[in-house]
Task: structure prediction
Amino acid sequence: MASHVIITGAGLCGTLLALQMANRGHKVTLLEKRGDLRKEAMSAGRSINLALSDRGLAALDLIGLKQKALDISIPMLGRMVHIKGGGTTMLLPYSGREGEYIQSISRPGLNALLLDAASDHPSIRILFNHGVQFADVAKARVMGTNGETSELFDYTGDILIGTDGAGSEVRNGFMQIGSNIRFNYSLQWLDHGYKELEIPAGPNKTWLIEKNALHIWPRQRFMVIALPNLDGSFTVTLFLAYDGTPGFNHLHTDEEILSFFNEEFPDLVSLMPDLVKDFKQHPTGALGTVKCGPWYTDRSLLMGDAAHAVVPFYGQGMNCAMEDVLKLNHCLDEVNEDWPKAFDTYFAHRKKDADAIADLAVENYYEMRDHVDNPDFIAKRAIEMQLEKKYPDYASKYNLVTFCEHLPYSYAKEKGNKQDKWLLDYCNQGNSSKLSEEELERVYRTLKEI
Result:
């Protein structure tokens, strides 16, 4: 039987969810507190591109938009590591197998693609500038204010799903229930923040550094990354502690900013003519992990960042949020559209995977920042490439997370961490990264058994 589903938040998860719920025959009201991003400029300093991989692509395939998303993406075949002093390592591929790489995609571009499809769907009503201020998750009711008219709104549906981000108002509704569902919530901040900068396009919209790579400048306690955009520019992100030297709280003047970059990233300074202006004008963003639960009542559910916000260092925040839609869809299929049963099954399976990718994302920050230029790490990756090239059933931890969408995050974490520990110990013992056929098979069999 068709239901009226209210979804709060018309970001990537919410709009994808609206499309799939409408495809299942339900009537959808999609509320978004901001204006229509297709008509408004994006605020400076907000992340404008993301890493799209197999889990997100599988979810997009569910609604028939996978190819359209790929059409507005740039393949990133591996990590290009920029060593302090001006040296650049060779490209470190993401996989030893052909066709396994991630895509740089514009956040507003992908969101607009989804919104266009939702706007065309007869069963979806999108209400922009509708900021939810109160949610009754027991009754699937939301109240708030229309930002354009200042009028109050009050909507009740059969089902309410909160996809309204890490600062979710619907989640507040769960927190207000109290002992009835014993809702737990934690927010763990990193001591590092981030700032978005830019390498502009070169002449005729050319890319000034390697186009098909995710660039990393690791510096032990901090780092810079850069992702390519279709217009020839790169989105550059500095991840740095708030306190300490260097730290965001101690970089204020033009001289302090330039001195820091000239010392740590001299090759970037010449590529970013607006470096100081962008640094001072763009906000410093905070990085936090949200864990909470249970995510559901009989009539309401939390999904995406509202349920499990993660830091961005595995490139899985968007992919995980969109995979949520795929997993909920499977649960609804299994219980023949019985919403309470679907929500219960969804949470029972998805919670441990959301916690796993949250932990992996924090772990990967330290790997990217501290270890990608470490000889043992480089040797480990070289061995993993050989294993993936020769043995189709072998996958590194990164591969398990990023390219094995049929395997849950919790499995990828457990298996991947065991493999990483063994391989790093192996490399630390002075073993060569160029293995004979016999030794490669021995390593393969050992890793399969752990």
In short: The chain is about 40% helix and 25% strand. Residues 374-449 form one domain. The mean pLDDT is 94. The longest strand covers residues 184-199.
